[in-house]
Design brief:
Length: about 100
């Protein structure tokens, strides 16, 4: 399991992506985000939800997801299996929901 913390300034964007299969003890990556402070908008599949301090979301393996930081945020994150880094673990699959031109 991968456990990490994130702190982002307002306007930071995590592009929509999926986690690639890599050699680990799990077939896919299940991810949990818990917002400790601030506010984010998380796209999961075709849905989007705003999360504030104390809110959490679970993202199941193979489901497209993205995140936009609306107010400076600190986030606690867990992922099943180790995280191998952006180059081997993620594939960007589309635009960030709600992102206008130049966003």
């Amino acid at each position: 399991m991968h456990v990490g913390g994130q702190r982002h300034e307002a306007g930071h964007v995590v592009p929509e992506h999926v986690h690639n299969p890599v050699k680990r003890s799990t077939v896919g990556t299940m991810e949990t985000l818990l917002v400790l402070s601030g506010m984010v908008e998380v796209g999961v599949g075709r849905d989007s939800v705003r999360l504030g301090a104390g809110d959490a979301v679970v993202i199941y393996p193979g489901v497209r997801h993205s995140m936009r930081v609306l107010h400076e945020a600190t986030i606690f994150e867990t992922k099943s299996g180790p995280y191998w880094g952006r180059e081997s673990d993620k594939t960007d699959v589309g635009p960030v929901p709600g992102a206008g031109a130049g966003a």
